[in-house]
Protein 1
Amino acid sequence: MSNYYFPENEAHLRQVMEAFSFPATLVGAVRYGCGHINDTFCVLCQPKEGDCIRFILQGLSQAAFPRQDEVMENFERVTDYLREQIKAQGGDPARETLSLLPTKDGNHYYTDENGKVWRLMPFIEGTECYQTATPERFAASASAFGRFQYLLRDFPAHLLHEPIARFHDTENRFEKLLAAVEADKAGRKTSVQAEIDFALARQEDCSVALNALRAGVLPLRVTHNDTKLNNVLIDRATGRGLCVVDLDTVMPGLVINDFGDSIRFGANHAAEDEKDLSKVNFDISLYEIYARSFIQGTQGGLTQAELEYLPWGARLMTFECGIRFLTDYLDGDVYFHTTYPEHNLDRCRTQFKLVRDMEEQFDKMRKIIRNIQNAGGNEP
Ligand code: ADP
Ligand code: GN1
Ligand code: MG
């Protein structure tokens, strides 16, 4: 308990915790995790009897989520559905998906005086959350995200709001980059001409998956849309990918993007903001490991076209993320959490390095998927 302390905004956190209904005394809180979007705290509470209990308290980002009530409605619908699916499969819904604690007035979240929404969730104990992949962790996360896809395969998509419009619309992300270059709000344009040129040279790529969607080649499904390694909790005892977290962007999307976003983040040995680009290299063996477990996790749920487009998912999500970081850099760092002025630019550069690597190894990436298929990897 000794390293639990209140951050600078103790009074506000106490007031937020007061809104929730549970018979325990707040002992302390720490900022928690490495998410770029929400304000996440681990809070420690002392019940009348027994040991202290930990919770995750999260304030939703108002910059990312303009319609916070819709985010919470999605969260409840998806987790309610997952709980039933997990029970039906003989799993433990209290550990395998997220849940919310009620407020004193019977709601599932609290809105503070600034209009910011706060939710309180049980801390899923006995788990680890990793920032870099090893083959074992990456395979575990792949199974969890594949299973997530499988569990939601029949979820009625019309029940979901679109919490961030055009989230993985890469063409639109590209247009937003052009607008940011034009506006040059932070006066940084001339210093990033090389990165802008890198993006401009790849405009056509932005339409590859969207064209396949428009042509009816790729189906729209309910997807997670933010499948980083640190959005899955891995069971410490078994090493299994136990619980998929960060459900704020669950909405209709392309399964190749869920695959691709995991590859973007995990299939290399450097941090997303590594400054030394010689350390940032796409690791095709990690890609293969992820692909095998993800495909298996979906239990035969992927169509032939989806399998064929998986490598494109990796390239596109990496490129898209790079242009999102570059856009935010040009806009003056208004969206992603940053801790120093060049943070978004460093992140953009790692993504563009990975795009280059993937372009060079694209044929091999395709072959790997075909080999997995030929070995029966996509069978139920
Ligand atoms: P962000 O949108 O900012 O990424 P997340 O929802 O991913 O926020 O939460 C940030 C981190 O908090 C996660 O990466 C994970 O480490 C941790 N986390 C979130 N929910 C839980 C939970 N219920 N139990 C344990 N850890 C959690
Ligand atoms: C954000 O919330 P977090 O840190 O898990 C972002 C993702 C990006 C990712 C880049 C809602 O994810 O889209 O790919 O950063 N989430 C949102 O690391 O924009
Ligand atoms: Mg997250």
Note: The chain has two domains: 13-123, 135-374.
Protein 2
Amino acid sequence: MRGLDCRAMPEIAISAREGAPQETAADTRVLGLFEGERLAEPELQQLVELGEARPGLRKVAVAHEDAPGGGRRRVLIAGLGKREDFDPEKARVAASAAATRAKELGAVSLSWALPDDNAEIGLVEGTILTLYKFDRFKSKGESEDEETGNGGALESLEIAGADISEDNLRRAEVAARAANRARDLQNLPSNVATPTFLADRAREIADEHSLEVETLDREGIIAKGMGAFAAVAQGTYAEPRLIVLRYSGGTEGPHLGFVGKAVTFDTGGISLKPGGKMSEMKFDMSGGAAVLESIGAIAELGLPVTITAVVPATENMPSGRSVKPGDIVTAMNGKTIEVNNTDAEGRLILADALAYALEQGVERVVDLATLTGAIIVALGSTHVGLFSNDDDWFAAVNAACAATGEIGWRLPLHPEYADLIKGKYADLDNAPEVRKASSITAAEFLHNFVGEVPWVHMDIAGSAWGLGRPYAGKGASGFGVRSLIELARRAGSSI
Ligand code: BES
Ligand code: MN
Ligand code: ZN
């Protein structure tokens, strides 16, 4: 299998249409219903009064009406909650409920009557993200859709309303599709999505969007002095790659650095993880997947920014040549590290990737990493952990996350936390024995490799999969892709 081009389903076509919602040619139209408001059409309003159509978010009622061209068609009435509480996230959730029901009913074409200004982004994203499925390894007849008799696909989504911004529609479509491609990379098992597979995918993205691509192999990583990255990679037969993509959409705006952890499988190494749920560690490359697919989408949209994306990709395996607890390695910036727990590998590969990004001249950095289990204890899957050495850059990243529903919560950095990761025999300790504030000490570790350059670290361990939002489904969520695109868009039009 090569690349991501083996998707079975054609993509849903997105369009906008001016004029009355009833004039649509779609086989299923969707009307939103806000709490305390009436529907203009009497037959449909009757369903509201009967209590069959309800305004609660995620509620969907089904009605039928005469289609303009003859025959009958479906009308879905989708609950939107209170109008004053309505926001893009609620649009995503409502769109998800409507898309799920439409698909169950065998709809082929869908038309959403725009319920509120600027809801189009959420409707498009919610629909595309909800329709994502990953069943390429299921034999024919075994996939969920086939079991439930819903083999058909939704072919088109139209947003009906006045003055719908084509630009918004396109942004939403490109971003959601990029998130789905990241989900493919995440969901692929580690025997397929190897470091070299990710490098091939990066090359594919570069070819498609005229980006510059560069990869370093094991020798190159060692030659570059990336002793921390090389130490993690030394235990595995799979060839590691440092993947670098460069996009230049004009000279204005700061040079951004996107760095993503891509441990294609994290066994823990010699500090082996317990067996339960270890299979989920194929998702430990989620930060890297988000970085690769977001830069592709940013180039597709032609956003006026300059970005260097750096993705260190390797497995973390135990073997006769693995790095061992107590080993001391030297990172690219000269700092020495005691590897006291080989399962704290993410910070080791990111140390060198961040140093490399700085060497490339990036002026603001954001890194995404499934870095610590502790962040799941602290924040669950609702907020990701955000850490930063710069209030303005933090505010920019935080705002981009808030706009996409990929919300974050800032946790502190402090010299006392930094003290906890001082090494006994070397500069740094990758995993101090005292298990205090583990997510923060992980961030403080990374802090050593960015210095004063404005930087935000996103610990996405709780959200990269098992997100639990209706539109995110099971498995991988593509978390971070939409925020990175939004961040680039804002950076391009002055932060
Ligand atoms: N990839 C894991 C973090 C992780 C764990 C993500 C569970 C998602 C779910 C990371 O490499 C790791 O193992 N971190 C250790 C650090 C510890 C050894 C200091 C952790 O969180 O336990
Ligand atoms: Mn680990
Ligand atoms: Zn890991």
Note: Residues 266, 268, 343, 345 surround manganese (II) ion (ligand 2) (CB under 6 Å).
